[in-house]
Amino acid sequence: MPMPMPLPAPYDHHHQGHHHANWTAGRYHYGPMIPPPATPYIEHQKAVTIRNDVNLKKESLRVERDSENPGKFLVAFTFDATVAGSITIIFFAKEGENCKLTPTKESILPPVIVHFEQGLGQNFIQPSGTGIAFSMFEEAELLQDVDVYPLAIKADACPANLTDADGEPVPGSTNSQITQAVFDKDKGEYKVKVLKQILWVNGMRYELQEIYGIGNSVESDFDGNDPGKECVICLSEPRDTTVLPCRHMCMCSGCAKVLRFQTNRCPICRQPVERLLEIKVNNGNEEESN
């Protein structure tokens, strides 16, 4: 059985530079030191402001019984509009190129178009007689959310200065918000469950995402006495940076710039961080993107 070789002394003038040993925590390591794994690079971006002229408040979206047509239900919701436009209700809609929605059961449920004027907090309810009779469809059809959405609502905003002589929108000028939903059965009653909200602006499609923690920042000016508004790391600066993809708005931009070189985990949920998104919301000024 071979005898183990004795370890060299931690510092030897006669052999220095020949055995290449490194002294670390009382142990010898031959060869070069292995550096710790590098923290993955995390991209830090600033948010781009996109004008949204009409917004359907998704928490208000519901169906109500049509009192004049037993067995039928009407789509209802609240919305804000800074310009005039139109709302289109489409049942069993398939989304195609350029956010075009095609009704797949148009023969029995044609799309319903209702025009609206500028105004905040407007209440919408589908015209009586145009609603959906759930009994006509299989439950699986009403719950499906692949390719065809049981309910889609397209809100088109059309500023007056972008209409032609007949009052029709100039092609490519209309910005839209699309809400895609399914019907979810709860205690025997069908309710609306929103899956996606999409903005179609200047030929670009944006899918809207909730940001957790942004409500504290936008409700009023930053107040250092409110524990819900400050950065979770420095506990002094207001939150303005969101972690993606988990969407926690929990840091100030200064701490975020330091964090991205130290860890790739969200301070709130510990999920891996792919990007950091800086959103200036407190002063009301639009933030220019780099």
From TrEMBL:
The keyword ATP-binding does not apply. It is an enzyme of class 2 (transferase). Its EC number is 2.3.2.27. Pathway: Protein modification; protein ubiquitination. One of its GO terms (biological process) is protein ubiquitination. It catalyses: S-ubiquitinyl-[E2 ubiquitin-conjugating enzyme]-L-cysteine + [acceptor protein]-L-lysine = [E2 ubiquitin-conjugating enzyme]-L-cysteine + N(6)-ubiquitinyl-[acceptor protein]-L-lysine. GO terms for molecular function: ubiquitin protein ligase activity; zinc ion binding. This is RING-type E3 ubiquitin transferase. It comes from Chenopodium quinoa.
